[in-house]
Amino acid sequence: MIEDAERDRAKGFFANPHRYVRNNPYIEFRADAVRQLLPRFTRKSILDLGCGDGRISIPLLGDSDELVLVDSSASMLDLARANVPPKVASQVRYVCTDLAEFEPQRTYDVVLCIGVLAHVYDPSVALRRVARSVAPNGCAIIQITGGSYFLGRATQWLYALKRRLVDSSAHALNHLTLRYVCTELHGSGLRFASSYRYISVPGVRRLPPAATRAIVRAVNRGFLSNWGGEVLALFTR
What we know:
This protein is of the alpha/beta class. The chain has one domain (4-236): Vaccinia Virus protein VP39 (Rossmann fold). The protein is 36% helix and 21% strand. The chain contains 8 helices and 7 strands, in the order H-H-H-E-E-H-E-E-H-E-H-H-E-H-E. It has a 7-stranded mixed β-sheet, with helices on both faces. Helix 5 links the parallel strand 4 (108-113) and strand 5. The protein is globular and about 45 Å long. The relative contact order is 0.17.
């Protein structure tokens, strides 16, 4: 759990969405991985908690699907709205609220929580929100930086070092493990089904966009991704 001051810093960071989305190859990379993990549905309802600019969940929309985008940053939701193709605009709804305050009024076939748990005030509260939102026979995909993996711990250590030496205004992150997430969700009726690991490359976003994407793809080709500290995990009800 992060402190109140850190929560305010996190909100301030995401209030300026371009700091997060600019030359960020992991948005597209995670979107591809989510499509690979996701079970097939003939028709689906999707809830994207902490949706960012929507580039992960919007491509999942079919002609008869529906999507709810939730984010605490109004500016992020503006970017997401701009990314929605006109032909599916009527199928998308936007909710601007903090994840801890979001109360699902129904359940969904697919619930996404990508790039969120490191930044929330209380991960256990966020995971309970996720679990309550999953419909019978539905699923959730969760992303974390896994603290039980060497590269996950290295990523966390490098971020902490950068925060101390370079950017003291940066917010502290929650450090989680896949075991913790599995335990929290199991108690709410969700079962771990499969996962995908990948490597986060420090400093790669400083390079030109084409080089950034090429490097991320190269280091995560084949078996190398299995050494990664970043985890996308699929849970089913």
